[in-house]
Amino acid sequence: MSANAYPPVKIGLLGLGTVGGGVTRVLTRNAEEISRRAGREIVITHAAARNLDTTTADLAGLKLTGEALEVVDDPEVSILVELMGGYEPARSLVLRALANGKHVVTANKALIARHGNEIFAAASAAARMVGFEAAVAGGIPIIKAIREGLAGNRLAWVAGIINGTANFILSEMRDKCRDFPEVLAEAQALGYAEADPTFDVEGIDAAHKLTILASITFGIPLQFDQVYIEGISRITREDVAYAEQLGYRVKHLGIARRGVNGVQLRVHPTLIPQRHLLANVNGVMNAVLVKGDAVGQSLFYGAGAGAEPTASAVVADIIDVVRTLTADPENRVPHLAFQPDALSDLPVLPMTEVETACYLRLQAQDRPGVLADVTRILADRAISIEAILQKEPLPGAGDVPIILLTHEVQEQRMNDAIAAIEALDSIRAPVTRIRLEPLDAVD
Amino acid sequence: MSANAYPPVKIGLLGLGTVGGGVTRVLTRNAEEISRRAGREIVITHAAARNLDTTTADLAGLKLTGEALEVVDDPEVSILVELMGGYEPARSLVLRALANGKHVVTANKALIARHGNEIFAAASAAARMVGFEAAVAGGIPIIKAIREGLAGNRLAWVAGIINGTANFILSEMRDKCRDFPEVLAEAQALGYAEADPTFDVEGIDAAHKLTILASITFGIPLQFDQVYIEGISRITREDVAYAEQLGYRVKHLGIARRGVNGVQLRVHPTLIPQRHLLANVNGVMNAVLVKGDAVGQSLFYGAGAGAEPTASAVVADIIDVVRTLTADPENRVPHLAFQPDALSDLPVLPMTEVETACYLRLQAQDRPGVLADVTRILADRAISIEAILQKEPLPGAGDVPIILLTHEVQEQRMNDAIAAIEALDSIRAPVTRIRLEPLDAVD
After folding, report:
1. Residue span of the structural domain in which B176 resides
2. Closest CA in chain A for residue B123
3. Is the domain of A371 the same as that of A422?
4. CATH number for the domain including B15?
5. Close Cβ partners of A65 (under 8 Å, ≥ 6 residues apart)
6. Tell me, what CATH number does A260's domain have?
7. Same domain, yes or no, for A184 and A289?
8. In this complex, which of A221, A255, A439 lies closest to B437 when CB atoms are compared?
9. What does R_g of chain A's alpha carbons equal in angstroms?
10. How many separate domains does chain B show?
């Protein structure tokens, strides 16, 4: 069904702070792709914020108010997006929106951990949805992964790095041999930690998220009050170093585990094996490890906070709700992610036009001038060299391996250079080329 | 809506090999949890296989046949699960099942990569769903993650280790300095590689999966014929070693990237930075890295093949289809993963009953007998010691740090031991305890 077959879905936003700004930016910037995915347009039409002067959101075309109830009670709004944070008035506004027949999407982990049972009961009674993907691990679609993607499993446990501030502090303590108070001050300066860091460093934020993860993992009600909570403020740099000597790394984990006698719910610093993937999740990143009886261990990694990663999760929830608003088969999730009539005719680039850096291994005669010939061939084609390794001759043979790392170059030009190199008398075997991807580059 | 409000959904299975056996096991073993999630029972009622003697599936209560058409044409079957593999007759049977009004779930990557456009068009025309989560990266819910979880993003690229056999071979070549033919033979002996390994080591299997990933990432039709494909058979152990010296690791990646002039689709050995999480995905494991404009980099890691990981994905698809078969609000994805009236009253275990190994750091007077006192306290409480580190005295103080690693012990007993240790005259500060999780333990 094309994006124009149904009228746009109207969103009302509560809160125009960091995440609110992210949600407005993402919905606006990606409007075209989002409507191709969802099958109809999604527009923010209403927004409420305490202070309209401090928002980073683009407010053009929005019906703005300082009074949240005006949004919650406006019959035009189909989906209320709650990004205020805190328990109240968020709880009352969400309940009222549900009673008014609106679906709700929220990023509020404290609200869901504490009042989720009440809110979901109200949502069921009103036959409305409450999306809360953004409440746990920011942009990582972990709620969807556990709730739907691993739905065939009996899940044994979940263990997650679900507070980026605490993970940043522990990563810095290890990498730079620094103590907790010093790194906390740095985290505050960088904006990774609040002026009052208690929620992050004492594990309360992680406990909110663990409460939610445990519920969807085991099918139990939300029970925040039963989580054992310990923070990282008493960990010293010596603890971190000694753990490393023993083969472990200190991470602040939320752990929910199904045992014979009950479910364990706990948040505390934890030694985990250095070689485990989870031990190598550094800085402000989040990761959640899930153990299922069929799937084994699965890991989900990504940005756990920030305006746009959180917006990524909020918008995914909005799209999920929008699909259910049009109860016909075409508004199920489209097979290829985008509606069938909205697929793109983007061409596939010929491999010859692809640009990558390359590793080249040459097998060359061990005599003067070979390297000069090779580098001349590359220079003539404007291919820059990043590194050269010239190794000892192979035993028995008079051949030496030459390894070159080039900067980015178009495949066609590299093909041409390789052909020229292989034509040299001094080159004794086909050139081995392995392309290189920096992965971390910004693009 | 409770699991009994609707009659069971009936599944017909084509293929009772490795994955077919896994699907029957998982659906049977986890029947209770699955119906609590899906809102109704799901039962395999029909199955077809060429050779019923070699199956590992539990066939009790199934209507068995050697003739696939009998399953495809049986009006009782609501969802056809195609696990035969290959292009034909899988394609014809799937198209016929859709024409017969059945939903389809398949693990067949070759079928979807080559004939997916035709199959999805038929599915849309028949208003039926085709689930294919199991076609890419086995148990990792990557189709759902990209298609729904990251739906708010404009995605820039996806790069994945999506063939476990090739990743196993490259991991072994690096870890053990061995050459390709030797490791391939080992992989074949271990059952990780087929007798004819071409599909895995020459990149064809990875290209099938990349074709599917690229489509759902960029919203383009499936275009298997346009993928550039290069395998790992020409990589030597020297290449692997030289790459490491340069700070990189050789991985066989499928890469789809959106460029200005078109989409790159390529499968080839690739140098990636050693420190990147993707470089540390070893053995037969799979991982997919996705870059979105809002979320940044996200990584999804898990088992890419095998009977039960693949079954995990097949069953998740079945549950997704089942939810749509009951078009009422209660059969949306339940907020807490399980239907509201099917939540469990599993108790939360008191922290005192949780068992973990522990790291203990003691600050002790530097005099004889302290360690004897401490180890006596632990021995009296049947707490075994895994390791002891006794460090140099801290500068200035007469105190020495003693670090102990214990075996698993119940929290209550450890609390008691710590209290006794802290009561010793020679112990000068509160004991630091950090709990330990091995993570890799089988449980």
Report:
1. 142-305
2. A335
3. yes
4. 3.40.50.720
5. A46, A47, A48, A71
6. 3.30.360.10
7. yes
8. A255
9. 27
10. 3
Residue with the bigger pLDDT between A50 and B404: it is B404
Which residues have a Cβ under 8 Å from the Cβ of B384 and sit 6 or more positions away? B378, B406, B407, B409
Which range has the top average pLDDT, A319-328, B71-80, B124-133, B424-433? Answer: B71-80
Evaluate whether A401 touches B205 at the Cβ level (below 8 Å). Answer: no
Q: Of A342, A365, A390, which residue constitutes the final position of a domain?
A: A342
Q: How far is B189 from chain A (nearest CA, A)?
A: 23
Quick one: A196 exposed, middle or buried, by C-beta within 10 A (0-12, 13-18, 19+)? Answer: exposed
Judge if A420 and A358 occupy the same domain. yes
Count the Cβ atoms, other than its own, within 10 Å of residue B412.
15
Q: Which residue among B219, B299, B354 sits closest to A336, beta carbon to beta carbon?
A: B219
Contact B343 A437 (CB under 8 A): no
Residues B151 and B258 in one domain: yes
Contact call for B346 and A258, based on CB within 8 A? yes
Q: Are strands B79-82 and B103-106 parallel, antiparallel or unpaired?
A: parallel
pLDDT, position B441: 45
Q: Which of A342, A364, A397 is the last residue of a domain?
A: A342
Residues A81 and A134 in one domain: yes
Q: For residue A2, is it within any domain?
A: no
How far, in Å, CA of A217 to CA of A169, rounded? 28
Q: What is the ipTM of this complex?
A: 0.91
- In the set A209, A251, A291, A391, the catalytic residue is A209
Q: Which residue of B has its CA nearest to A282?
A: B277
β-pair partners for A356:
A409
To the nearest whole Å, the CA of B354 is away from the closest chain A CA by 7
Residue A410 lies in a domain: yes
Rounded Cα distance between B81 and B68, Å, is 11
Q: Are B49 and B170 within one domain? A: no
Predicted model pTM: 0.91
Is A443's CB within 8 Å of B144's CB?
Answer: no
Q: What is the pLDDT of residues B84-134, one digit of tens each?
A: 999 999 999 999 999 999 999 999 999 999 999 999 999 989 989 999 999
Structural domain includes residue B325: yes
Domain identity same for B297 and B189? yes
Contact criterion met (CB < 8 Å) for B148 and A152: no
CB contact under 8 A, B299 and A297: no
Residues B64 and B162 in one domain: no
Q: Return the beta strands (E) in B259-312 as ranges.
A: 263-273, 285-292, 296-303
- Asked if pLDDT for residue B443 goes beyond 60, the answer is no
Please give the residue of chain B at the shortest CA–CA distance from A222. B336
CA distance B63 to chain A (A): 23
Tokens 């939610």 sit at which residue?
A212
Residues in chain A where the model's pLDDT stays below 50: 1-3, 441-443
Contact in structure between A434 and B239 (CB atoms under 8 Å): yes
A299 within domain boundaries: yes
CB atoms B316 and A269 under 8 Å: no
**H or E segment at B31?**
helix B31-38
Asked if the Cβ–Cβ distance from B300 to A296 is below 8 Å, we say no
Mutation pick from A115, A300, A437 vs chain B, by most beta carbons of B within 10 Å, is: A437
**How close A224 comes to chain B (CA, Å)?**
11
